[in-house]
Specification:
The protein is mostly helical. The chain has a single domain (about 5-105), classed as Orthogonal Bundle (Endonuclease III, domain 1), CATH 1.10.340. It contains 7 helices and no strands. The chain has helices at about 5-15, 20-25, 30-35, 40-45, 50-55, 65-80, 90-105. Helix 1 runs antiparallel to helix 6 (about 65-80). The longest helix has 17 residues, at about 65-80.
């Protein structure tokens, strides 16, 4: 997968799935997309207390504060990859990390 926005979505949904069935998350996938601006990391980074509160009341997603905070934190980290210092796409960053891991074995 080379579409960074969809890859970011999948990484977030993986985190949401922790402790739950995949079917639960997949049934709420459209709810997540609507709640998190189609997983637009730039928009998600700007979520403040009010938006976080709205998310925790949204029946279209799993309403867990730690998971909501993790989505927003992940968006911040994804944004760091695109800064002038890195200029790296999310897919490339993950691929490079996997290659480095394999080389270290």
């Amino acid at each position: 997968m080379h579409d960074d926005q969809r890859l970011f979505e999948m990484l977030c949904l993986e985190g949401a799935q922790a402790g739950l069935s995949w079917l639960t998350i997949l049934r709420k996938r459209e709810g997540y997309r609507a709640a998190f601006d189609d997983f637009d990391a730039e928009k998600m980074v700007g979520y403040g207390k009010r938006k976080r509160g709205e998310l925790l009341l949204n029946p279209g997603i799993v309403r867990n504060r730690l998971k909501v905070d993790a989505f927003i934190s992940n968006a911040d980290e994804e944004g760091r990859l695109a800064t002038a210092d890195y200029r790296q796409k999310l897919a490339d960053a993950i691929l490079n990390a996997v290659r480095a891991y394999k080389a270290g074995k």
